[in-house]
């Protein structure tokens, strides 16, 4: 996939740092973009060339604060480390990505595995939701409301962040609650707006301490990180972020494991969801 740069990557006399998106990074892209990258080697090579820092062997070890480097296309890549030493992020093309495995040593440099593609977010939030296999139920609900779909499709100057429950969580909602969704369109509309924050681009790099954001509905979402996992709470309902930081041209999408704000189960059904309470 990096054929034009093969000789450079093999050259033992030239050092470099390469950020390699994992298979998980590819799965965070909408299906259309995945297919595009797999079938367009020119585009893929262009994007991946921006993940190479020439003539520098950079390691996140002991990184504090921010450091800036330049890739093969002379675009900046910023590295940010936290004082707790837990996470290191790099940014390129206004996309922050997490290093999940660092310092894979080579004779001519170092490789770092990252969670997302940098310099590639040419799709809207709605395109990501519509083409994400894990969000088919949520996409179906959103498609009922043109105003929400239009907002998520707009590539404007106001950033958005949306937290959406995955298919596994929505498929276990009792049928009586789904009937309520069907009978009361306002009920579901308000629920969806309670998952959307306007004017803020909230990525995992921002979530170091507990903080609150206001949703489109005017409700409060509380976010925090615990033992490496990110949680979000709306009303009395807490959800874990199971896929974070799907970067889009107009904001960020996070996939969660529960529907916020709206209780959908009775006490017995809710207790039954916890393995240690059965």
Features of the shown structure:
FAS1 domain; 7-stranded mixed β-sheet; alpha+beta; 28% helix; 278 residues; elongated; single chain; 14 strands; 31% strand; 2 domains
For this structure, the CATH topology of the largest domain is FAS1 domain
Strand content: 25-35%
**Distance N to C terminus:** 50 Å
Helix tally equals 11
CATH superfamily of the largest domain, by name, is FAS1 domain
| SS elements, strand count | 14
List the domain count as a whole number.
2
Backbone shape: elongated
CATH A-level architecture of the largest domain: Roll
CATH class of the largest domain: Mainly Beta
Indicate the percent of residues in helices. Answer: 25-40%
Unreliable parts = none
Estimated structural class: alpha+beta
**Average pLDDT, all residues:** 88
Domain FAS1: 1-118, 122-260
Protein name: FAS1 domain-containing protein
Organism: Octopus bimaculoides
GO molecular function, one term: cell adhesion molecule binding
Summarize the helices and strands and which ones pair or pack.
Layout: H1 6-10, E1 16-21, H2 23-27, H3 31-39, H4 41-49, E2 52-54, E3 65-70, E4 76-81, E5 88-91, E6 96-106, E7 109-114, H5 125-130, H6 136-142, H7 146-153, E8 160-165, H8 167-171, H9 175-183, H10 185-193, E9 196-198, E10 211-214, E11 220-226, E12 229-234, E13 237-248, E14 251-256, H11 267-272
Parallel strand pairs: 1-7, 8-14
Antiparallel strand pairs: 1-2, 3-4, 4-5, 5-6, 6-7, 8-9, 10-11, 11-12, 12-13, 13-14
Helix pairs in contact: 9-10
Protein name: FAS1 domain-containing protein
GO molecular function, one term: cell adhesion molecule binding
InterPro entries: Adhesion/Biosynth-related, FAS1_dom_sf, FAS1_domain
């Amino acid at each position: 996939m990096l054929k034009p740069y093969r000789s450079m990557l093999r050259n033992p006399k030239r050092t470099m740092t390469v950020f390699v998106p994992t298979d998980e990074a590819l799965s965070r892209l909408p299906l259309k973009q995945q297919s595009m990258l797999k079938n367009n080697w020119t585009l893929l090579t262009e994007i991946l060339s921006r993940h190479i820092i020439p003539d520098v062997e950079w390691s996140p070890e002991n990184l504090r604060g921010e450091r800036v480097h330049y890739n093969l296309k002379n675009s900046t890549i910023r590295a940010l480390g936290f004082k707790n030493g837990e996470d290191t992020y790099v940014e390129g093309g206004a996309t922050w990505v997490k290093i999940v495995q660092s310092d894979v040593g080579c004779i001519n440099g170092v490789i770092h595995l990252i969670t997302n593609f940098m310099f590639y977010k040419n799709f809207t939030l709605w395109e990501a939701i519509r083409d994400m296999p894990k969000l088919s139920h949520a996409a179906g609900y959103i498609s009922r409301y043109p105003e929400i779909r239009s907002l998520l499709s707009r590539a404007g100057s106001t950033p958005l962040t949306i937290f959406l429950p995955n298919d596994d969580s929505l498929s276990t909602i009792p049928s009586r609650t789904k009937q309520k969704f069907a009978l009361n369109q306002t009920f579901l509309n308000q629920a969806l707006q309670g998952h959307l924050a306007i004017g803020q681009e909230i990525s995992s790099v921002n979530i170091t301490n507990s903080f609150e954001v206001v949703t489109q509905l005017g409700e409060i979402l509380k976010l925090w990180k615990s033992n490496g996992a990110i949680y979000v709470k709306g009303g009395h309902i807490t959800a874990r972020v199971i896929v974070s930081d799907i970067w889009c041209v107009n904001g960020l999408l996070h996939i969660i494991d529960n529907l916020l704000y709206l209780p959908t189960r009775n006490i017995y059904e809710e207790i039954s969801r916890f393995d240690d309470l059965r």
